[in-house]
Amino acid sequence: MSSHSYEVALFGDFFPRDLKAIMNRITLHAESAHPLHCRELVYEPLVRDPSSPDFVLLRARKDLTQSGANWMLFSYLKPESARAHPEATVRPWAVVGVMGDALSFASAMGYVRRSQIYKRGYVFRRGLLEIQMFQQEQVDPKTEQPIPAHADTLWEVEVKTASPVRNTQETPLSQSVDAVLEVQLLMKGLLDLRRIDS
């Protein structure tokens, strides 16, 4: 058994014209829903060890629906191979609690910012899963504030475990894989959910 905690996920996207049908189906099978508006920054190590293919990515996320919300830091290793998990993206991850300035903390640890996005849409809860459905907003280079997405911007969907999952006898990883595959089946014919390797 591995000592890692994992995220199990599936991903998809769709055209705005399908929003109502997809929203209706997800809502029907979700326990709760609330608006999503967040800023996410991805950091990668400034110096990478060429002999090691594994490097930790840091993702900093701030919830913009709550004033004064703190940054959350998440660390990710690269996904496990498709041979081990052909049906879903499974990758080691951890949530890092940071008091104060999480972005300076990431820089102090030797990380540089690779990308930044704003997401706006909805978050649904279904058991141990979180389903994010959002459009990416562009970032104004001068103010770093979000620019509302164009009406025909693709919607993206991430179906994933809401918190890190340990692979134990009581909670085998297969439980989480089955949970995301159940959503894949529920959305069949409307939305193609798949594993990705990035």
Automatic annotation (TrEMBL):
Coiled coil: none annotated. GO terms for cellular component: core mediator complex; mediator complex. Its main location: nucleus. Keywords: Activator, Nucleus, Transcription, Transcription regulation. Belongs to the Mediator complex subunit 18 family. Component of the Mediator complex. This is Mediator of RNA polymerase II transcription subunit 18.
